Amino acid sequence: MKKKLAVLTVAATISLFLAQAATAAEVTVNSFTTAYGLFDLGDSSYDPATHTTTILLDVSAFVAEFPSTTPTPFLDRKFDTISFELLAAPNERITKVSYSERLQTIVTHDTDGFSYTASTGSAVVNSVSNGLGAFYQLTPTTGTFFELKTSYNIPGMENEVDVSITNDILAFAFGDNAYAKVQKQYAMMEVKSAAVPIPATLWLLGSAIAGLAATRRKGQEV
Fold first, then answer.
1. Which terminal CB of the chain, N or C, has fewer other CB atoms within 10 Å?
2. Does residue 193 sit within a domain?
3. Residues 6+ apart with CB under 8 A from 185
4. In sequence order, which residues have a C-beta less than 8 Å from that of residue 127 and are 6 or more positions away?
5. Number of neighbours of residue 221 by Cβ within 10 angstroms
6. Range of the domain at 167
7. Using one digit for the tens of pLDDT, what is the confidence trace for 22-64?
């Protein structure tokens, strides 16, 4: 009996220690859909030091330009929505989701023209909406860079998170020498994860087993 209790104590202690010290693995993307094909899923990488998965999105086709090669009355507008599911390992949880994108805008016109660009968007994480902000370029520029971004802390012990991102950009130009363009340079998502903490009741169970083994050992020595 003494030997069995000792073995059980060691096994329980080791199991709890390994579970508590487990390192979170890469978060994966499932069921990726895009409404108009201006977003595409790119490469991903994982940093074990920070438990962060970085997911790149291909936005090379996400451009609004006027005058454009396919003229539309007064403005060119592009928008798209992507939806997907983030999946962590069964013994892990997702703790934070961050999204950021970098854009460039060009606006030119003379005294007889007018042009501008506008960019905005939102991210919905587990039914909670987070605005990306908005950027408007109304004055002439040969190239201005800006970012839209948001982040959301995930409450609870979620290892599956639903995400939906919507973007809207437009370029307006009026006049013979007026020109407007806004183009996405890159977009990425950072997902932080962590091992699910061991409940206090299991640590108490391990301590009880160890105490029972110690009591049994003392009884045998008397």
1. C
2. yes
3. 59, 101, 102, 103, 104, 145
4. 162
5. 6
6. 24-197
7. 455 899 999 999 999 999 999 999 999 999 999 999 999 999 9
